[in-house]
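Late entry, written up from scratch paper. The run itself happened at the end of the previous shift, but nothing got recorded in the book at the time, so transcribing now.
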Amino acid sequence: MTWREAIAKAAGYPPLRLMQGFYKPRYAFKLQFDSPFFGTVEQDVYIKQLLRSVAGKLPIEWDYYSQDVLTSLLSHSDCDGILECDICSDLAGRLDELLPKLEQEDDWILPATIQFIGGLREAYLAGEDVVFS
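Output as recorded:
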């Protein structure tokens, strides 16, 4: 989840915890307090402003981003399901675009993304799906 949150941030998405499939009302409730919940105090200020703008509209639906192949990864379960072979090449390309923005994240985020991109390309060339288990 931490990795996907970094990917979402680099792509300019709202925090995944506010998105359909991840949102729980307690996330919005915890933002009423001063301690950082989504990261830094600055990030929480941004999130509080975002929450005010979408009040009553949570969770945020993925449909708004449906044209972006990245949603197939961001909305995916961590532990089951597949990414179909036919999107692997496009998803790898989309993640490639985000690499410069991921350099400022934790030390492991960039290498993990590069490794995942390689796996997506291998799956595409082999005609295989990426399986989560």
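Residues 65-131 form one domain.
(Scratch paper discarded after transcription.)
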